Amino acid sequence: MATDAQQACFEAGIKFGSLYHQFAGTPVSPSSARSLEAAMAEAIENQPHCEAVEVTVHDDRVADAVDHENGYTELTGSLMDVRMRIAYEGVTVRTRMEMEDGYPLMKLVEVVDGGRPGSGDADSSPDADSSPDADPNA
């Protein structure tokens, strides 16, 4: 049987898989990036145990990726960063997806079980910011 921490991490993986594979290929332009960010975050936040999602689609990367006269490109992991906070049975998991060595890497930032840090590189002090956009190295 999985522990609550393992289940919370599994839930985070499900959310990332849903977000990435549901929205990859969506047409995006610098002018539509904000609405796409909101749609992605709100869609994933509907899922069980998901407390917060922050999606950042980088306008400069989108503009650089537009390679035809129609003014848009297809959304890929290289165009966005994502942070999530998942809570399951008293365990809070913070995650992020960002480019690393040319690949959109999804990773655990912090796992907190009952107020005790279980893993990750985030500040585990009681007053640490637990929002998905908190700097994990603060």
TrEMBL record:
Its EC number is 4.1.2.25. Pathway: Cofactor biosynthesis; tetrahydrofolate biosynthesis; 2-amino-4-hydroxy-6-hydroxymethyl-7,8-dihydropteridine diphosphate from 7,8-dihydroneopterin triphosphate: step 3/4. Residues 3-108 form the Dihydroneopterin aldolase MtpD C-terminal domain. Keywords: Folate biosynthesis, Lyase. GO terms for biological process: folic acid biosynthetic process; tetrahydrofolate biosynthetic process. It catalyses: 7,8-dihydroneopterin = 6-hydroxymethyl-7,8-dihydropterin + glycolaldehyde. Substrate binds at E11, M106. Residues 112-138 are annotated as: Disordered. GO terms for molecular function: dihydroneopterin aldolase activity. It is an enzyme of class 4 (lyase). It holds the Pfam family DHNA. Homotetramer. Catalyzes the conversion of 7,8-dihydroneopterin (H2Neo) to 6-hydroxymethyl-7,8-dihydropterin (6-HMD). Belongs to the archaeal dihydroneopterin aldolase family. This is Dihydroneopterin aldolase. It comes from Halorubrum distributum JCM 13916.
